[in-house]
Amino acid sequence: MTSSKISPNFPASAFVVTVFCAAVFLLLPDGSWGGEVDGHHGGDEVHSRQKRFIYFNTQSPVDIGLLITLPLSFALPTFNLKTSRRFSRSVGPGGEENDIMANLTAEDILPLDSFDEPAYSVELGKMMTYFTILEIDEDICQQRIICDIFTDPEKFKPISDIFMRKLTADHGPMTEKMSSRYYRYVRAMQEGMASGEVGCRKGFGKCPYSAEERLNMPALHFWTYLTNILRMEFRDE
CA–CA separation, 121 vs 117, rounded Å? Predict the structure, then answer.
C-alpha cells in the first residue's frame, strides 16, 4: 500500500476545499455515499445508485459586501456647530445671559416636576450624552431638536436614526405625562412626524433656533454620503 502526501507547494486551504467539494458531490440525500456503483446492504438485493451533480453558475455575479461599524463618539462631535456658543445662556466671562436665550424660564430649562423613568434610564442616559456633546442643555430646545429632526428623518440622517433607536425602545408602558422626560421626547418625535415644521414652531417656539440652524448640516450630509457608499452604521452600545 502506498501512502499519499500533500505536496508542500499545494496550499492546505485548496486541499480542504477540494475534499469538501468531493464530499458534497458524492454524498447522497440519505447520508450514504455513492455513484453509479451497485452495492449490497446486508443481503443479496442489489441497489442501484444515480450520480448527483452540483452545478455552479460561473456567469452569475457575486456581490460581496462589507459593513463598517463606527462608534458614535467618532462622528457625533462633528454634528455640533462651531457657533454654538452664541446659543449658550452664559456667553460672557462674567456669565452674563445671552439675549437670544433670555426669554427662557426655569420651566423651559427643566420642568420642576420632571422625572426620568427607571425602565428607560439607559435610553435617557444616552440621549442626555448626545445633548451634552451638542451643547443643547435646555429641555425645551431638546424637544425642539427632536421634533425638527423627525419632520424629515432622511434629511437629518444619521442623527435621526440614532434618536429613533432610543425613542422606539420597548421596556413596557411609560408614564404618559409631560412630567416624564422620556414621554416629552417621544411626544416631540410624534409631533414632528405628524405636524411638520409648523407644528414644531408652534409647540416649541420658545426655543430660539431650529435643528437646521443649530446642527452642522454639511457634516450630517457628509456622514450620510459615507454611510450610503460604504455601508456604514454607527454603534453606541
Answer: 6
Residue 165 has pLDDT above 70, yes or no: yes
Instruction: Give the pLDDT confidence of 97-141 residue by residue, as tens digits.
Output: 566 777 889 999 999 999 999 999 999 999 999 999 888 999 999
Element (H, E) at 14: helix 12-26
Partners of 80 in the beta sheet? 215
Alpha-carbon gap, residue 140 to 150, rounded angstroms: 16
Distance CA 13, CA 19 (A): 10
Q: pTM of the prediction?
A: 0.66
Give the integer Cα–Cα distance in Å for 147 and 126: 18
List, for residues 41-78, the tens digit of each pLDDT value: 555 555 566 666 666 566 666 555 566 676 666 777 78
Domain ranges of the chain: 8-62, 68-235
User: What sign results for the dihedral spanned by CA atoms 150, 156, 159, 160?
Assistant: positive
